[in-house]
Amino acid sequence: MIRCATIGTNFVADWFMKAVQACDGITCSLVYSRNRETAETFCEKHGAGRWCTDLMEVAEAEDVDAVYIASPNSLHYEQAALMLSHGKHVLCEKTITSNEAELKELVRIAGENRAVLMEAMRSVHEEGFLRLREVLPRVGTIRRISFQYAKYSSRYDKFKAGIIENAFNPEFSNGALMDIGVYCVHPLVRLFGMPKKIIADSLLLSNGVEGAGTILASYDGMQAELLYSKITNNRLPSQIQGEDGTLVIDNITNICSVVFYDREGNAETVIDLPPEHSLDGEVKDWLRMIETGEGVGEDNECSLMELRVMDEARRQAGIVFPADLRKITGCGLN
């Protein structure tokens, strides 16, 4: 039985706790929050063992084998490094770190301490994505990919009213790419590897945070366009276009329906799953990696490629986070 702790008490942490309750082989023994009242409330809500307000207590806890991190992006590296250096397995919410350099260091620390580090990229651990891999050969030689995800943020109205919350605060390594675009970038590199060339453009808001953006990624014989936004909604599906046909994907962040169209326009539904939104798949994969060690390197490499693409997109857009300016030293930051 893996005994886990949680860092963060937001709605995503609620989803994680539901997955813990639904999965065999894991239980929550400790809840961390900087705020005592928040920690206590979250602990009672989910029936966790106990709570604390000291990160070092989590790292040194003898009844904690693994830690789930759902704090703001800018805190991921420091918190994950602390936990990994104490031999705790870590499942860290997307985007796993602010940049590739931070993740490279976390992978090193994890290896030294025989701990499993995994990015909580929910969408690629669900059945829909696994089935998408299986039907890819139907389209023949792939030439074009269009992944898009745009969701008007509930916090954008507050931003326009002058109230800047974490989601629109670059101090926390946030913005459209880190929060929304990553759902397009990660499936791309997981399916097709690292692009040969990247061209990116961003729509920046008044405080310099990215509200929306576009990435054009080039491969040998293939192009991909990634469109993402936190200030508009998209109504078009994603597509994978090949010489023999096209796969139309209902939602790249939660694949439930995929229709194959041949060159004559004949349609065939090749994936038809009930709508579901849970973290069960990623929790089960994390537990499997902890138990067997299989797939850890491949999973980490996908996250490294994801951040390599995102780092380059931010460089072209002139987006620099405070985390980019900090020097990584061992298992901490200066």
UniProtKB/TrEMBL annotation:
GO molecular function: nucleotide binding
Alphabetical list of InterPro entries matching this protein: Gfo/Idh/MocA-like_OxRdtase_N (IPR000683), GFO_IDH_MocA-like_dom (IPR055170), NAD(P)-bd_dom_sf (IPR036291)
UniProt domain GFO/IDH/MocA-like oxidoreductase: residue ranges: 138-247
Domain of life of the organism encoding this protein: Bacteria
Matches recorded under Gene3D superfamilies: Dihydrodipicolinate Reductase, domain 2, NAD(P)-binding Rossmann-like Domain
Domain Gfo/Idh/MocA-like oxidoreductase N-terminal: 2-119
PANTHER family reported for this sequence: PTHR43054, SCYLLO-INOSITOL 2-DEHYDROGENASE (NADP(+)) IOLU
Protein name: Putative dehydrogenase
Organism annotation: Hungatella effluvii
